[in-house]
Amino acid sequence: MLALHGTGVSDGVAIGKAFVLQRELPEIPEYVIPREYIEEEVARFQRAVEASRRQLMTIREHIPSNAPPEATSFLDAHLLMLDDKMISQAPIEAIRNQQYNAEWALKAQSEILSTIFEQMDDHYLRNKKTDVNQVVNRIQRNLLQQNYDEHEKIAEGEIVVADDLTPADTVMLKHNRVRAFVTSLGGPISHTAILARSLGIPAIVAAHSASRYVSSGEELIVDGKRGMLIIAPDRSIVDEYRRRQKDIARKKRELNRLRTSRAITRDRHRVALLANIELPADVRAAAQAGADGIGLYRTEFLFMNRPEPPNEEEQFRAYTKVIKSLPGKPVTIRTLDLGADKQVDGGRAGTAITVNPALGLRAVRLCLHDTSLFRPQLRAILRASAFGKVRMMIPMLSGQEELFQVLDLIEETKSDLKRERIKFNPKIPLGGMIEVPAAAISADLFASHLDFFSIGTNDLIQYTLAIDRVDDAVNYLYDPLHPSVLRLISITIQAGKQARIPVAMCGEMAGDPRYTQLLLGLGLSEFSMHPATLLEVKKIVRGAHLGQLTRFARDIMKLRDTREIHARVEKQSRH
Ligand code: PEP
Ligand code: MG
User: Fold this and answer.
1) I need a surface site. Which of 176, 374, 460, 561 has the fewest CB within 10 A?
2) Are residues 418 and 386 in the same domain?
3) Looking at the domain assignment, is residue 272 inside a domain?
4) SS3 of residue 7 by DSSP
5) Ligand 2 mean position to 303 CA, how many Å?
6) Is residue 133 located within the same domain as residue 214?
7) Pairing of strands 526-529, 503-505
8) Coil, helix or strand at residue 181
């Protein structure tokens, strides 16, 4: 038995068999093939291409029916690429003419393709490089007779152990019903961790060397609350954890009784509790938790694991599906927030990674830079607004100029739709995410142009404390109670109050029961979180007295010692 510690990012206990996900390709051998063996080498290459095709077809057949359409289109694109001469023929020429071994020939050709793709201006074509790399890697693994270890091999109910998982991977894992996952790297507010919470499965990140100590098939216990991974546990430990699982299940049943109760404080203040979703399929969990609506729909997940961005029509269908599943409830559609750790490909292929991607061309910056990406989305959201209470929200605003550009584009899109006699809500509420310190400090300047704010604490904390969300080496500095963070939250709430616009919060802090009372006291009235914690937060709201909490928050804001802030908030949360 061995126990490893990491950062627990999603509560719960899982007991099951390990599946170790290896991604690294071994070194590609390079040698010259004697003339007489050339045709044999060509045949070996062709067999590897055929094996790759069979594998892709098998995965395609096994995609669950409730998987998003992008899961299939991503495989179709890979199948098409296998037929492309650049991949299936060019290496054969190199084997015949240069006497390269098959792996070397394929590697040389993929380097040529990479250079071609890198020179392309078009963002999406550039991203195709990822798919090419994935297809090439698949053939390489088959040549090297290395088990192809992608998600298709993961059996239902297994615990995935990996060095790292990209959000793109995690969204695929979602359909394999994995029981838990553990990564060696990563931070608590990385999108991968957020996805784990939205899946409601236990997860640990930054469990250093986990993938080295664990072998596939070994029994594991994942204690998501304590961030503990137990490898090959003794029987007595397994029994103890089974008891704990039963306790958790019982508490969950108790909380479920609150599903239809209102989120109202003891002194009768109504609080809105909404859900964060990544894909239309997540709406079910939001409805089951009794959410008052969707406070954050992260539309970028619609753009992942696929070769082409979804067109206006596909986006329109996805958005209306969400709206129609929650009749009468608000649905806050956030415009594309790609970039940084949310690359369409999960950043695997090393496409033009800038030195500081989190500070780079991300979210609204990317949308304004490439309006061919933005315009169809604006049209789709506006069209969807005719079907329900849609709100549009812009991520990562840092300066007013960006907002003005967005407003112009929205106006243009509205005029186009009007001219085309397409229905939309001309009064669609427009919100801005306050997640860059600059925006929080100058929230009053944004307020007059917006209908609501939503505080994105994940990025606000990352940028305020200068800690990369995905860098486990600086996890220890992550602190939602840092006085600078609390001040920025308070400034934003006050600016909203002054301008009489609602202020919501949709970062992870909003769904963390430890902070609910403090946030209520600071004046927050709308919380959006992954559905898994909604009922726990509701229970706290129902036990809270807003008048008392306002005084509590005022006292906290006066404290001059961070340790005392922590102690007081913790004490209060035990009440
Ligand atoms: C945030 O930054 O708090 C947020 C909600 O957005 P995301 O986590 O998708 O960056
Ligand atoms: Mg954010």
Assistant:
1) 561
2) yes
3) yes
4) strand
5) 17
6) no
7) parallel
8) strand
